[in-house]
């Protein structure tokens, strides 16, 4: 990697990088020094960031269509206009809002077990309503720690308040974890994602990148390309992280455990209502949220921590009665929209305009989960201070509002790039930003507290060697604490599998738009508190961590602004991985696999040298030669797979030739 600050001047930087093929010829002519290294005077102030977070924090959960969401969207729109964004579109979608009171206001939900008032941690979102009078019924214990044959049959749950004992984190990813044992109903449930427009959910999109290897359950740290502060990642790779060290793995397990029970047990049984008891301390549980959000269902559900749940489990085991209240409401045709806007670059509105996409969601329960929109505003704040004539590319921003609605994006299908194609046709790279500034939390006994460290920052990306270097450089250069550079498509530095791409939908746009380069920067939300715990602006969110993540995002946007996006494209990395991961049984002569793999690697290296030099007109001939080598060395299935990667790389090379012809 060239260390830009060692070079004497911006002109020298542009000349050197243009010669290396890493900067477009257009950018090389007029690149601002603010785009080759970060100008700290242009970064957003800590005071401004704190003010944003205080505003967001005091409003409460920003669930789509609700009062806090409206305030958040107004803040975003107002800041966009102040920063000089243009063509701001509020793209609506049909939406029915389910809502009740939000933590710490528990007036909308309560539980009385055998005459004793119970401290309820949270409600089960989208779970119908009892009305203010509640439901009174006999309780029955449904213990997930027992084999299904020792639990009551579904017929015994009808009309009852079902108390579910969730399995403890200690059994997660061990032989002691008991299967649910109850298959999904043969007739699909009619419970609804968007009443009254109840339609079947669409299939979820594939991850942005194919996964090399089998990552298995998310129980601990996996392999990586680079990670900062290695001493803060205790234990060995792939080992289970104790909740006393890091709570995020436990939190993920407990938040989502009830979903399959809802589908396979509660709904088909005809239960009157339900309670689930999580293996979580009281503070960790307050305001907790089922994730991913289920579609709406009609079994009013409350969620308890393990302390409050002890009495309820005992009462249910004894067949005692309870009164459960979940006073929820629905607003049909609620206000719901997504925002798209553009900060124009110097070629905006012309045939030579190119754009960088910044994407996130803006709905959610807390700062630890939904402040990616503030991250985008912080990044725009930097570029808004650079004159438009010095911005080589425009910046398109997309704020999505369907991440926490009933059934999430699958129940409310909306392809923004298909519905607004003109707004994204110039995109040539981008970033997804989520969960900025989070602090790491751990739990000892029933004490849930910050560890004094930042929550893990994940920087996911595609397997292009140049792009991997850029991500590592941004982490190092901006001192992002406890950050991991992750490339799921290939083995990590220790030869092991890397973490699969979590929440990759916001990066998937770059795939759908043609396989453009980019990265996904995301803090580890379950550690900092996925739940709606307030106030969190100073207890679970660190302005300092937020600013360092923002600076890393700016550095990566700078790379997309000034460097050759064709050389950074994922296709070159997939071609390399296609060679380096070939097993011996892929070769016609397995005993000569090492020799054959080395020959193909030499072909790849010669191609990528041309790519780095920007000599795309010479690449097709080399790709043809590599394809011929694959035919000679590999068995047909493996040859076909590698040739598909060669073909994809060829299309990117053609794109590079076209851009060079336009002096881009």
Describe the protein.
By secondary structure, the chain is of the alpha/beta class. Among the domains are: 192 residues, Glucose Oxidase, domain 1 (3-Layer(bba) Sandwich); 92 residues. It is built from 21 helices and 21 strands. It has a 9-stranded mixed β-sheet. An 8-stranded mixed β-sheet has the order 4-3-11-6-7-9-10-5, covered by helices on one side. Strands 2-12 form a two-stranded antiparallel ribbon. The N terminus is likely disordered.
Overall morphology: globular
Determine Rg (CA atoms, Å).
26 Å
Please give the number of β-strands.
21
Note the main sheet.
9 strands, mixed
- Portion of residues within helices: 25-40%
CATH topology of the domain at 103-203 and 241-331: Glucose Oxidase, domain 1
Tell me the number of helical segments per DSSP (H or I, 4 or more residues long): 21
**If classified by CATH, what would the architecture of the domain at 103-203 and 241-331 be?**
3-Layer(bba) Sandwich
What top-tier CATH class of the domain at 103-203 and 241-331 fits best? Answer: Alpha Beta
Q: What low-confidence regions span 5 or more consecutive residues with pLDDT below 50? A: 1-21
Quickly give the structural class: alpha/beta
Distance between the termini: 22 Å
Trace the largest sheet across and list its strands.
Answer: 1-13-15-14-16-21-19-20-8
Strand content: 15-25%
* Arithmetic mean of pLDDT: 93
